[in-house]
Amino acid sequence: MTATPPKAWKSMADAHRERELLARKVSGLASEALSRSKRAIFALHRGTDAEAATLLKEADERFVACEEAAKKHKVTIDSGVYQAALEEYAEARLFAQYLANGKFGALEKRLMEPRVYLAALSDATGEAVRDAVRRASRGEVEIVAHALHVVEEAVEYLLSLDLTGDLRTKFDQAKKNLRSLEQMAYEVRLRDRSVES
Questions:
Q1: 73 with 121: CB under 8 angstroms?
Q2: How deeply is 72 buried, as exposed, middle or buried, from its count of CB atoms within 10 A (0-12, 13-18, 19+)?
Q3: Of these four, 68, 88, 89, 139, which has the most CB atoms within 10 Å of its CB?
């Protein structure tokens, strides 16, 4: 003889199913946002700013859709994919900001959550290094000194926070990025001295 399950179980099963569907939707949208953010960074490196802007807009639209779905279902988004996508998007926005204004600064509210912003800032130092290498190889050696200054400021700021865990790993990479720029600046100075001689 099978007993009839309590009504609470039925509503619990329905709520669980709805939450699982939401999680899959958020995961899919976040993956799309992550992909577009990565592609935007590459577009920025290629100098195709219009393409990067379009990709960043499309990524933003995916985040808005995630947030609207979460709000509708009164849940918070705690997906690792969503977090990774936010970090990549914030990195792309910081790199675009660096290319446009020559520095890293504040971003929109959703990206100013400390875990997201600090991870993105650490990673964006690597994009500044790659940009300096690319531009210096084309003869724009003055960019090395500028990138060194900007990355040095970012590393000094991150150092003041005494980061741990994942953020410490990202910070360690930012320090390596700074060392790369210091080495580039040294090589530029040596080259300039040999030209003067």
A1: no
A2: exposed
A3: 89
Q: Is residue 5 part of a domain?
A: no
Structure tokens at 15: 């709520």
∠ Cα 68 69 71 (to 5°)? 65
For residue 107, being part of any structural domain is answered with no
Query: pLDDT tens across 149-183, in order?
Result: 999 999 999 999 999 999 999 999 999 999 999 99
The tens digit of pLDDT for each residue in 108-127 reads 999 999 999 999 999 999 99
Tell me if 3 is assigned to some domain.
no
> For the chain, what is the domain count?
2
pTM: 0.89
Tokens representing 117 are 């912003």
What is the Cα–Cα distance from 55 to 102, expressed in whole angstroms? 21
**What ranges make up the beta strands (E) of 25-174?**
none
